[in-house]
Amino acid sequence: MAHTCRGTINLSTAHIDTEDSCNIVLSNGGRTYHLKANSEVERQRWVTALELAKAKAIPRSLCENDSGDEEPASQSDKSELHSTLKTLSSKLEDLSTCNDLIAKHGAALQRSLSELENLKLPAESGEKIKAVNERATLFRITSNAMINACRDFLDLAETHSRKWQRALQYEREQRIRLEETIEQLAKQHNSLERACRGAPGLSASSTGSVQSAKGEASDEDEETEYFDAMEDAPAFITVTADPKHHRYDSYNESTCKDLLPKKRRRTRIPDKPNYSLNLWSIMKNCIGKELSKIPMPVNFNEPLSMLQRLTEDLEYHELLDKAVKCESSTEQMCFVAAFSVSSYSTTVHRTAKPFNPLLGETYELDRLEEFGFRSLCEQVSHHPPAAAHHVYSKRGWTLWQEITIASKFRGKYLSIMPLGAIHLEFHSSGNHYVWRKVTSTVHNIIVGKLWIDQSGEIEIVNHKSKDKCQLKFTPYSYFSRDVPRKVTGVVSDADGKAHYVMSGTWDEKMECSKIVHSSHGSTSTEGKQKTVYQTLSPKVLWKKYPLPENAENMYFFSDLALTLNEPEERVAPTDSRLRPDQRLMESGRWDEANVEKQRLEEKQRAVRRRREAEAVEALEEGKDYEGYIPLWFERKVDAVTGELICVYKGGYWEAKDKQDWSTCPDIF
User: Fold this and answer.
1) Where are stretches of biased composition, namely Polar residues (predicted)?
2) pTM value?
3) Taking the C-alpha atoms of 587, 588, 592 and 598 in order, what is their torsion angle to the nearest 10 degrees?
């Protein structure tokens, strides 16, 4: 077929086969797809539908014009349609002639039989002649019905031929317009690449950064979604009070950067190669699909796995160390809120996609001696992709979560929706905090400069004291006068009384201001009454660390991110640091990394097929089949949220001390 998208199979030449009661195999030349239905009945329905589509595709492929000349093809289709109708008419005339002959000879046969009936014949012969006469009558009626059905079919074909022609012409025009649009996008992309290569080197000074920031707004095209600046006006107003009349303890702003680590970590990785890639040729087949199910080359990746990106949320772990020392639960909530926002600071320039972990892949980050915590992640499910994470700190807190990434590519932007709750518990007070992540959106996927935005709301709940913090991530608006990437929120107690106002941006810093007085202000345009908070001067809780030198050539990695894939001894054989395709990509050998990535994915598919075969065999034998069981985590119902999540069951660090990895699967 002409002008097909990559990944399609021409049904007119495809072979449709069934492997077992639920599997379907579609093959066409070198391309083979394995499909699985939920049941044998559903499989048969799919096979029937595919066979019907194949039967329709065969005559359509015969009249397909590969030259792309639409007008002659249209005339050819018209003449072929008329020729078909003419042939049908001719055949119908032949059938009518046959019908006349049948009627004529049938009438003669019936007269002869009537004459035989009038003769004096034995009773038995008369009965037989009568039966033959009835059958001849039925034959004539049936032949007449057949001719009438053929005539009705011809009338229907003539009636709908014009409508079919119009529909066919409309589809052709739509295809032409789509091809022109794709061609225009490709030309724009190529011209932008040439302009980028031909432009002089930009200065890395602050002036250049400001110009780049302004350029982001100018890269927006007419299809960009804009938000009305007045649509979500803040529900409160803050007024700074005179600090002379109030006593307020300032927070200690020292960071863990002041602590010298006992082990020297690496501070750079090989520079990112400058490989050109036609983005549209890969992404055009991905619209509407789950990002985790799209086979992509490493050109779109960064040399870190999703497990390592999840661990990167701990970059500002010192906020939780400070929160342990807070005497007030509402004050502690402020640090927890700042920690929840700080996890997004690394995403502002990180537009590359992390590697999808293999099932059973793990990642440890042991910083017990340096920073007092150790972290473990494990990929516990592949479809949907889910990762379990557990962090223990000897400084008084434990964090755990199970995150499932739901993502959709919508043509001009990519939405990433983390699903799952994050739990944080402080050992001494027993305060148990729970919150969820907001939606991340990657804009300008096809044309323009990629940029990331965070939008939505986070509700942090202390399930012991019932304190709450409502954080709002304001989506970017071209017409808004607010600071980009703005985050605001209020910390309130169990009675709903507000104690602190949170403000800042998710890419730079977060501040909190203690509320000394609140009152009702003016009514907004939406009819809602705003609350005016009188606060003390804001205190900085969190401020982003500056990026290391030459970060733009190292995937915009932070100091912590540069060390995440650093080779370490004594780690589990399933650790992300040992993943070969990721290591090759970090070294700049992208072609070899792509080959290795395909090998690992095919190996994982083979394991999944073997596991499915075992499940079928167990079902046939009437046995229970548990499926994949995580190695270091187990599924339990959470007592707070009531959700079924994977929690750490122990044993990993003991296995590391003994170097006993006999239970680990061979995934690399």
Assistant:
1) 203-212
2) 0.62
3) 90
In-domain check, residue 223: no
Whether residues 169 and 316 share a domain: the answer is: no
Q: Is the pLDDT of residue 113 over 90?
A: no
Residue 285 reports pLDDT greater than 90: no
Query: What b-and-e string marks burial along 300-338, b requiring 16 or more CB atoms within 10 Å of the CB?
Result: ebbbbbbbbbbbbbbbbbbbbbbbbebeebbbbbbbbbb
Q: Which two tokens stand for residue 326?
A: 């807070």
d(C-alpha 123, C-alpha 126), whole Å: 5
Sole residue written with tokens 């004050």? 331
- Which of 129-143, 271-285, 296-310, 555-569 is predicted least confidently? 271-285
Say if strands 23-28 and 468-473 run parallel, antiparallel, or are unpaired: unpaired
Which one of 117-121, 166-170, 588-592, 647-651 scores highest in mean pLDDT? Answer: 647-651
The model's pLDDT over 359-413, given as tens digits with 9 standing for 90+, comes to 999 999 999 999 999 999 999 998 888 999 999 999 999 999 999 988 877 777 8
> Total structural domains in the chain?
3
Residue whose C-alpha is closest to residue 71's, from 202, 140, 173, 196 = 173
Residue 620 maps to a domain = yes
Q: What are the CA-CA distances from residue 77 to residues 54, 63, 162, 291 (Å)?
A: 20, 7, 12, 40
Preceding omega of 384 cis (within 30 degrees of 0)? yes
> Do the domain assignments include residue 20?
yes
